[in-house]
Amino acid sequence: MPATTNRTSVEDLNRANEGKLPGHLGLRVTEVAEGRVVGRFAVRPDLVAHTGYLLAGCLLSVADILCAYGVSTVWNEGSNGFTTVEVKCNFMGTLLEGEVECAAELLHGGRSTQIWDATLTNAATGKKLAVFRCTQMILYPRG
How far is CA 92 from the centre of its chain? Predict the structure, then answer.
């Protein structure tokens, strides 16, 4: 694995949430470690579908956000960016109320790609709501 540097913290990521989609979703980052980012958000009426259940897109968005934040915990030396190239999410449950916890973890960290997994759970019970996987392409300066 290429040399890496952690370039972020809980405070940095929560500041980055402000005024953007993560902030609108109410996402609070609670843990940052090399190859791991954890966050939570509360189920609110504006995040619920007409069916009364939490929108699946909220789960997918939070997982994608935390995996993307995770890239900055294992930043490849010399790289200057990244982009998501593929995502997959399987849903197993939903919530009517309460909080969702999402833990994103690095599965593979190579020079040109990273693969991240995220598990979304009912924060009160630990019951799985969804599992998510994405591939990030690591970008380097042209030259």
Answer: 18
Q: CA 24 to CA 27: how far, in whole Å?
A: 8
Q: What is the DSSP letter of 94?
A: -
CA distance 9 to 33: 8
CB 120 within 8 A of CB 102: yes
Mean pLDDT, contiguous 10-residue spans, the chain (143 residues): 70 95 98 97 96 94 97 91 96 95 97 97 98 97 88
- Which tokens is 121 given? 């759970």
d(CA 114, CA 137): 7
Helices (H), 5-99: 10-17, 21-25, 56-71
Give the chain's domains with CATH numbers: 4-139 (3.10.129.10)
Supply φ then ψ for residue 54, to 5 degrees: -55, 135
Contact status, residue 79 vs residue 8, Cβ threshold 8 Å = no
Judge contact between 95 and 121, C-beta under 8 A.
no
Q: Torsions phi, psi of 44, nearest 5?
A: -130, 160
